[in-house]
Amino acid sequence: MIQAADDRLRDEVRLLGALLGEVIRDEGGQELYDRIEAVRQASVAYHRDPASHDAAELEGLLKDLSLDQAIGLTHGFAAFSLLANVAEDRAGKRRARDQAEAGERADTPEGALKRLDAAGVDRTAVRDLLSQALISPVLTAHPSEVRRKSVIDRVAAVGALLDGCDRDGIACSPTALKTALRRQIVILWATRLTRASGLVVQDEINTVTDWLQRIFLHVAPAQLAEWRTLLDAPDLPPFLRIGTWVGGDRDGNPNVDAAVMSAAFRTQSRAVLRFYLEEVNALGEELSLSADLTAVTPELAALAQSSADASIQRADEPYRRALSRIYARLSATHQALAGGPAPLPASFEAPAYDGPDAFRADLAVLHDSLIRTHGAVFADDRLARLITAANVFGFHMATLDLRQNSDVHERVVADLLKVAGVCPDYAALDEEARLTLLARELAGPRPLFSPYADYAPETLKERAILQAAAQALSAFGPQAIRTHIVSKTDAASDMLEVYLLLKEVGLYDPADPAACPIQAAPLFETIEDLRASQPTLQRVLAEPSARAVATARGVQEVMIGYSDSNKDGSYLTSGWELHEASRALLDVTRAAGVRLQLFHGRGGAVGRGGGSSFSAVLGQPAGTVAGRIRVTEQGEVIANKYGEPEVAQRNLDALTCGTLLASLGPQTDGGYSAEHGATAARLSAASMTAYRALVYETPGFVDYFRAATPIAEIADLKIGSRPASRSTSTAIEDLRAIPWVFSWSQSRVMLPGWFGFGSAVQGENPDELRDMAAAWPFFRTVVQNMEMVMAKADMAIARRYAGLVPDPALAERIYGEILKEWERTKAAVLSITGHDDLLGGQPELDRLIRQRMPYVEPLNHVQIELIRRRRAGDDDPRVRNGILLAINGVAAGLRNSG
Questions:
Q1: H-state helical runs in 600-746
Q2: In this predicted structure, which of 90-94, 165-169, 243-247, 887-891 has the lowest mean pLDDT?
Q3: Number of H helices, E strands in the chain
Q4: CA 826 to CA 112: how far, in whole Å?
Q5: Half-sphere CA count of 277, side-chain side, radius 13 A
Q6: How far is the C-alpha of 181 from the C-alpha of 21, rounded, in Å?
Q7: How far apart are CA 480 and CA 488, in angstroms?
Q8: What is the rounded CA–CA span in Å between residue 66 and residue 325?
Q9: Beta bridge pairs of residue 521
Q10: 442: nearest Cα among 472, 483, 419, 413
Q11: Sign of torsion over alpha carbons 469, 471, 474, 475
């Protein structure tokens, strides 16, 4: 079976590669084709048998390329990586289907329920948990997606053609398929792979809205319907809520303001309302039932009677008449919320809905009538799924989080207090004095802001954003905005400052603090802040204002960040500190009588918390999930995990299954023991020491990093609307985590995903480490993620990047330290897994990575050469474009590199 699957994957790669070759020969010329083919063959031969094929042959083919040859070759290999990914994704879908049918996967609904059954957990407990659950992927605009939307669309079109052929079976003509595929590949070949201009926030809003509209609006109702069927729970409420940061995340992005936030809601609302209009129109075409031939409920009869539909043809068709009124009201709602007329105007005027509840109520009248008069055949139909969509997405589409840095809040509050004559220098107060002052202001009704006074531009901007948030809540309802995340939280006053600012725009009422619709949520992301998170949250929940909001909501949300903690202290230390902080935060919320709701700020790369979401959830400390979890999805991860409906539903199910198993599963504390915890703490401390000794304490390391990776060139990629650094400083501390991780991925070192582990385990008992990996999902996931990222690394290529460092002695010294730790870490991982090679226990993943690497390595070689030329003073724009194209291709080949 595995062999057959491998053969099919290989056949599809060969088919797409052959068609690309034909296109390159026809479009780019025979010389380019011959060069690409020679490089491809040499690279494949070297990777298949390094002992018999010297890398010098490959390097010789790539040496002394003209600029045009280098760009053409890079374009060809980048295009091939994109097409190979299509075949790989299809193989993954087939494998997932086969394993699900065989009951082999615990990350599928059937597999998870089977495991819970075996543990003695009955279906009532599962239904009860899901009825109170919150499972929320949150789409962000973090810039790690290098592919243009045009490229993603072409790749999706190729996949859709192959999928269609599978569905049509024998009716699919091989000749017709090849013709259709070649057409798409011609377009892909002739499409610029890199962006010509930078993104603005509206571009990011449009991209996220497109994902929501094309994928989530359809998948969320389908997923809920499946779980309702499996659990025999037709009334199971939606537990999935889609979130977004795009338009509300101001942390480090000066381009987000009140107008942008309002535009985000208009864009999302326009998309979701047009979807509802299309569905209502389609239902109108379908539900042609005549009152002369069927009974209807009195409620439906009344709804139909209230319609101003004047068509004689529909006079005896109550469902159509009711839908005409619903359509007219939706059309008016579109005008009010989306700022323009509906694409297809209604035939008569009707009042706009005052909220999604009224819309859902009208739909429920139709559905109830169909069920009562015709039975269960209408239980899970188009109308039922529209009701679910309206329940999940409302008129706002996705819940928008607000996020800002605590330093900004401090400055704004200080400005308001100073101008109001309350406190001349708020920033100079110690923490207790700040809390006393903030509590006093939150207890009284008097506003601080005066429209007649002068304020700093930053103050006016932040106030305008919160005013826009208040308007959005009024227009779209309480699900539009639920949380205000505070980056760089290190004190309880950081939370109270948010409530004070919400009070200024009428969202926090001193007379009824529990009614505040937005909860302030701390973000703990550095190692220091994670270690201080317990006392910080204790102090927050000791304050009446924050305690009232948490008690009314029943939960206190806390966000924990994977990226900056990794950059601070190593992959292992980050994971351990997040684990321990989660346990400590759970104790705090339990003592306060509220539930903990963790929001995991994960990226795509292992160095930013990436890896399997299912495994990550299972590795959480006991009690910290309890049916509620939020997790960021960003950059290339969105397209990889949610690029098409089948894959999207599989990933949403995996998150749901992980949540169920972590909440109800047989392990009482996630495999954790005091002994394991003591060992992990010791390993974490040693890993952090080794990591910081290299990154923060080694003379010349910053110079090495900036020369031996394409960090400077990545800044030209134009993949996001916010700057790569928080300041003009070149210090590692001030660099954002995404370019930090992305740079090491491009240079094939992958340092943030493994460095420090090898040193940490020196002298440890290998049997104990193996026992930990076997019994403890947290530690097992750490090792598996390191193993995966190390399999994508290549220290020989990394040495070539080190050759870009102007000082050879510096290059040799630091590269030597990295190589030693690499060898120690690889030996440690193999000792724990008991295998001879990396990924020895994951043969499918090993084969996929091995098949991919021969097509990535030439891109690395060309990238190095073009970087060398540019840094030597060649300012030809084509050199820069070639570098960006190579970066694009390497990222496509590595997949989760950001």
A1: 613-618, 636-642, 645-664, 674-695, 701-708, 711-714, 737-746
A2: 165-169
A3: 38, 9
A4: 33
A5: 20
A6: 13
A7: 24
A8: 67
A9: 485
A10: 413
A11: negative
Q: What is the DSSP letter of 197?
A: S
Which alpha helices (DSSP H) does 793-876 contain, by range? 795-802, 808-833, 843-871
Instruction: Tell me the catalytic residues.
Output: 142, 567
CA dihedral 291, 296, 299, 303 (to 10 degrees): -30
The number of beta carbons lying within 10 Å of the beta carbon of residue 873 is 6
CA 334, 338, 339, 341 torsion-angle sign: negative
Under 8 Å between Cβ of 556 and 541 = yes
Q: Which two tokens stand for residue 767?
A: 């049997």
Quick one: pLDDT at residue 612?
80
Question: Are the C-beta atoms of 339 and 266 separated by less than 8 Å?
Answer: yes
609 with 144: CB under 8 angstroms?
no
- What's the distance, CA 150 to chain centroid? 20
In this structure, what token pair is assigned to residue 743?
């740079």
Q: Within 10 Å of residue 197's Cβ, how many Cβ atoms? A: 7
Burial label, 728 (beta-carbon count in 10 A; 0-12, 13-18, 19+) = exposed
User: pTM (2 decimals)?
Assistant: 0.90
Q: How many residues does the chain have?
A: 898
Tell me the β-bridge partners of 485: 403, 521
Give the pLDDT score at 723: 56
Distance, CA of 725 to CA of 734 (rounded, Å):
6
Q: In what order do the strands lie in the sheet with 483-487?
A: 399-400, 243-244, 134-140, 628-634, 595-601, 555-561, 519-524, 483-487, 402-405
Adjacent-strand bridge partners of 557: 597
pLDDT tens digit sequence for 501-531: 999 999 999 999 999 999 999 999 999 999 9
Question: Under the phi-then-psi rule, with left for phi > 0, alpha for psi from -120 to 50, and beta for the rest, what region is 682?
Answer: alpha
Whether 809 and 801 have beta carbons less than 8 Å apart is answered as: no
Is the pLDDT score of 773 beyond 80? yes
Here the tokens at position 581 are 């902080």
For residues 672 and 658, give the distance between their C-alpha atoms in angstroms, rounded to a whole number: 17
Spatial contact of 565 and 605, defined as CB atoms under 8 Å apart: no
For the packed helices 298-305 and 356-374, what is the interaxial angle rounded to 10 degrees?
Answer: 130
Cβ neighbours of residue 549 under 8 Å, at least 6 residues apart? 499, 513, 514, 516, 519, 520
Question: For residues 323 and 284, is the Cβ–Cβ distance under 8 A?
Answer: yes
Tokens linked to 12: 């599809």
Cβ neighbours of 741 (radius 10 Å): 27
User: Rounded to an integer, what distance in angstroms lies between the CA atom of residue 316 and that of residue 495?
Assistant: 59
Rounded Cα–Cα distance for residues 142 and 713 (Å)? 18
Check whether 630 has a pLDDT greater than 70: yes
DSSP β-bridge partners for residue 599: 559, 630
| Structure token pair of residue 240 | 């999935």
Mean of pLDDT over the chain: 90
Give the position of tokens 């070192």.
749
Res. 1 pLDDT band, cuts 50 70 90 = very low
Residue 357: pLDDT above 50?
A: yes
Q: How far apart are the first and last CA of the chain?
A: 33
Give every CB contact of residue 667 below 8 A, 6+ residues apart in sequence: 622, 777
Closest by Cα among 497, 741, 709, 500 to 610: 741
d(CA 863, CA 165): 37
Contact between 484 and 518 under an 8 Å Cβ cutoff? The reply is yes
Residues 6+ apart with CB under 8 A from 874: none
Q: Residue 62's pLDDT is what?
A: 79
Distance between CA 352 and CA 362 in Å, rounded?
13
Task: Please calculate the CA angle 246-252-254 and round it to the nearest 5 degrees.
Answer: 75
The helix/strand/coil state of 402 is: strand
More confident residue, 523 or 878: 523
Structural tokens at position 183: 């057409």
CB of 144 closer than 8 Å to CB of 898 = yes
